[in-house]
Amino acid sequence: MREMKIAIGSDHGGFHLKEHLKQYLTNQGVEVLDFGTFSEESVDYPDIAEKVGRAVAAGEPQRGILICGTGIGISIAANKIRGIRAALCADVFSALMSREHNDANILCLGERTLGVGHAEMIADTWLHGVFQGGRHTKRTAKITNLDKDR
Ligand code: RB5
Fold first, then answer.
1. Which residues make beta-bridge pairs with 87?
2. Which of 101, 108, 118, 136 is catalytic?
3. Is 118 a catalytic residue?
4. How much is the average pLDDT of 90-106?
5. Predicted confidence band at 3 (pLDDT cuts at 50, 70, 90)?
6. What is the distance in A from the centroid of ligand 1 to the CA of 46?
7. Is 68 a catalytic residue?
8. Interatomic CA distance for residues 3 and 124, integer angstroms
9. What b/e readout covers 58-93, taking b as 16+ CB neighbours within 10 angstroms?
10. Inter-residue contact 112 to 70 (CB < 8 Å)
11. Which atom in ligand 1 lies closest to the alpha carbon of residue 68?
12. How far apart are CA 126 and CA 31, in angstroms?
């Protein structure tokens, strides 16, 4: 995963998995930009989703990982940001499809729903997944069009 840069963020419910994945991905040569949270103290997941979502929507960096207890709240919040296609994935197949078909630019994970080894595998799969374009492009373009209604 040479020259890959990603944003990462979590609330308190995802803090330990964030710290683990940050180290795991850094060890593989991924540049990981940490948008917090930085302790177990309670924080609100929309605030972290906003920080990572705005960075990814601006293309700096182009992709991110968000984690909360279930991954649900933080994915709902991230998907409110124009240009974000956040996918909550609890299995490897969904992680791959979210890249190949949906061009997801944020992966959402749940610390309380996933084992660490499974989360690593999902993250690896998602980071290596490549958007397949073709028939999927007109569909992602239609998602982008929905942003204009807001
Ligand atoms: C925090 O307790 C928890 O609600 C949050 O991490 C997340 O699971 C929300 O969807």
1. 107
2. 101
3. no
4. 98
5. confident
6. 10
7. yes
8. 15
9. eeebebbbbbbbbbebbbbbbbebeebbbbbbbeee
10. yes
11. 6
12. 16
- The two tokens of residue 74 are 């933080």
The three-state DSSP-derived secondary structure of 56-83 is HHCCCCCEEEEEECCCHHHHHHHCCCCC
| pLDDT value, residue 149 | 77
Going from the Cα of 114 to the center of ligand 1, the distance in angstroms, rounded, reads 14
**SS3 per residue for 78-103:** HCCCCCCCEEECCCHHHHHHHHHCCC
Strand partners of residue 34:
8
Cα-based distances in Å from 32 to 8, 107, 117? 7, 14, 19
What's the pTM? 0.97
Q: Which atom of ligand 1 is nearest to the CA of 12?
A: 6
Q: Closest Cα to atom 5, ligand 1: which residue?
A: 69
